[in-house]
Specification:
Layout: E1 2-7, H1 11-16, H2 19-27, E2 31-35, E3 52-56, E4 66-70, E5 76-79, H3 83-89, E6 104-108, E7 113-118, H4 129-148, E8 153-158, H5 171-174, H6 182-193, E9 196-198, H7 199-203, E10 212-213, E11 225-226, E12 229-234, E13 241-246, E14 258-262
Parallel strand pairs: 1-2, 7-8
Antiparallel strand pairs: 1-14, 2-4, 3-4, 5-6, 6-7, 8-12, 9-12, 10-11, 13-14
Length: 264
């Protein structure tokens, strides 16, 4: 089974540029997880070729949002984080309520859960760092850990964090800045401590492997980027994992897709 994840940074723009058709034709995923769709369901007309569509748009128009397209029919659909987890961790931080921003969409299948997540950005001035560190990361970790008690979990998406120095081109210049603060990296590390496996690093070591590039200064052409898009899986799925890739050749967004090939 080929599962892809892509922060499209506006799905309507990707479609209008013809990049969606290129992607589907070339890769033909079994399941596609999308982040930052920036649209409501009725605003999106995806050439879907046999996919069943599930959307979780943000309350705020033109902002955030997630979606999953699947050729495999799910057993159930979970939008956002459950109410008890929301009440335990999350609140409106003045910028918005993170559980009303369409950031999590989860499908239950026979043998696993698949969750896609668009993690809040800490912002240039780090105004959302407390939200990330004290609220969002613990809340999402509790959610996927709860799911994992029932059956194995795959989760993917834009985690808005480079885990270590190999995951960005200029680590020294960015230490302590959004996406590479100690707090954000610790938040990601807690998922590893809980037993989740970074699928890409299971196969590939070293730097130069990035999933996001700034639009400025020809960063993508020069491969001056960050690896902030991930697939993490429960440890029990490790032996079923066949491949994990970054598709830097696929354009249409400032992010590129990432994927796993797994026997399910």
């Amino acid at each position: 089974m080929k599962i892809y994840s892509w922060n499209v940074n506006g799905i309507r723009a990707v479609i209008s540029k013809g990049k969606w058709d290129e992607f589907i034709t070339k890769e033909s995923p079994d399941i596609i997880c999308l982040q930052e769709i920036k649209a409501k369901d009725h605003q999106i007309e995806l050439p879907k070729d046999g996919y069943e569509e599930f959307f979780n748009p943000a309350d705020r128009p033109g902002y955030s949002g997630t979606a999953i397209l699947t050729k495999v029919k799910p057993l159930s659909v979970i939008k956002n984080l459950p109410k008890d987890i929301e009440e335990k961790y999350l609140k409106d931080d003045g910028y918005g309520h993170p559980n009303k921003e369409g950031r999590v969409l989860t499908l239950e299948f026979e043998k696993f859960y698949l969750s896609t997540v668009y993690t809040p950005n800490a912002k240039d001035d780090l105004e959302r760092l407390d939200l990330r560190y004290k609220e969002w990361d613990p809340a999402y970790l509790e959610f996927v850990s709860r799911l994992q008690k029932d059956k194995p979990v795959i989760f993917c998406g834009d985690l808005n964090t480079a885990y270590n120095e190999d995951d960005l081109a200029n680590p020294k210049a960015n230490k302590g800045k959004k996406g590479f603060t100690l707090e954000e990296r610790e938040g990601l590390d807690n998922f590893y401590k809980a037993g989740f496996i970074d699928t890409f690093r299971h196969f590939t070591e070293g730097n130069g492997h990035y999933t996001w590039w700034s639009y400025f200064a020809k960063a993508r052409e020069r491969n001056v980027g960050w690896r902030i898009d991930y697939f993490l899986i429960s440890k029990s799925l490790k032996e079923k994992l066949r491949d994990a890739r970054i598709h830097a050749d696929i354009t249409g967004s400032d992010h590129c897709p990432v994927s796993i090939d797994i026997d399910l």
